């Protein structure tokens, strides 16, 4: 049974045992584009990936299933070498603790996503990045573009163009890296992990 056949079973919920870790060759392959119209299997896979992200952000479900919290997941992390990513970025409470008007600033399953254009300015998360496929802390600035324009298809085959900046741009770049065989620490300066490029934006 393939990894995808197992994951798309009606009774299956993705957990940490489904996620492959660094050292697995699938994480270093360039994933294949999916063809449209999408197969039912690829649509269900996208829905299951989004369900995982929702569960990982729900304290009760995360504890029950033993999940690490995540805001993005790429099919290669499930040992499925396809260009499919899911992103679920929650909006935070305001300074007075009021819930946000919209729960998420970005929630989408993207098929064949790619970066069309990007800013000259670099950006990095001040706290560094983590990854569900990397079970260790890797310190340093992961240098990315502060703004990107991306193109992707939804499950119905509709093409979308999206401009992203700040944290959302970082999340999507991290996931697109996965479908290109790149892991976040490849972008850390090996000699000086906290080196800043000219006018680099540090995102808190």
UniProtKB/TrEMBL annotation:
Annotated EC: 3.5.1.88
Catalytic activity: N-terminal N-formyl-L-methionyl-[peptide] + H2O = N-terminal L-methionyl-[peptide] + formate
Binding positions (Fe cation): 131, 174, 178
Keyword set, alphabetical order: Hydrolase, Iron, Metal-binding, Protein biosynthesis
Cofactor: Fe(2+)
A Pfam family per the record: Pep_deformylase
CDD domains, per database record: Pep_deformylase
Broad EC category: hydrolase
Molecular function via GO: peptide deformylase activity
Active site: 175
InterPro entries: Peptide_deformylase (IPR023635), Peptide_deformylase_sf (IPR036821)
Cofactor note: Binds 1 Fe(2+) ion.
Record-linked PANTHER family: PEPTIDE DEFORMYLASE, PEPTIDE DEFORMYLASE 2
Function: Removes the formyl group from the N-terminal Met of newly synthesized proteins. Requires at least a dipeptide for an efficient rate of reaction. N-terminal L-methionine is a prerequisite for activity but the enzyme has broad specificity at other positions.
HAMAP family (alphabetical): Pep_deformylase
Family: Belongs to the polypeptide deformylase family.
Protein name: Peptide deformylase
Annotated source species: Streptococcus didelphis
Lineage: Bacteria, Bacillati, Bacillota, Bacilli, Lactobacillales
């Amino acid at each position: 049974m393939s990894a995808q056949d197992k994951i798309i079973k009606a009774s299956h919920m993705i957990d940490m045992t489904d996620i492959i870790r660094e050292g697995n060759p699938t994480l270093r392959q360039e994933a294949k584009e999916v063809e449209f119209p999408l197969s039912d299997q690829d649509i269900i896979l996208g829905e299951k990936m989004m369900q995982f992200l929702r569960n990982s952000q729900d304290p009760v479900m995360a504890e029950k299933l033993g999940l690490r919290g995540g805001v993005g997941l790429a099919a290669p992390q499930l040992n499925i070498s396809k260009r499919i990513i899911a992103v679920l970025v929650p909006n935070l409470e305001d300074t007075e603790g009021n819930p946000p008007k919209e729960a998420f600033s970005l929630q989408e399953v993207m098929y064949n996503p790619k970066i069309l254009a990007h800013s000259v300015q670099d950006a990095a998360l001040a706290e560094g990045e983590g990854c569900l496929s990397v079970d260790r802390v890797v310190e340093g600035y992961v240098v990315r573009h502060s703004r990107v324009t991306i193109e992707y298809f939804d499950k119905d085959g509709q093409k979308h163009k999206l401009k992203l900046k700040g944290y959302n741009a970082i999340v999507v770049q991290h996931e697109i890296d996965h479908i290109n065989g790149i892991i976040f620490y490849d972008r850390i300066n090996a000699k000086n992990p906290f080196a800043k490029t000219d006018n680099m934006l540090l995102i808190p």
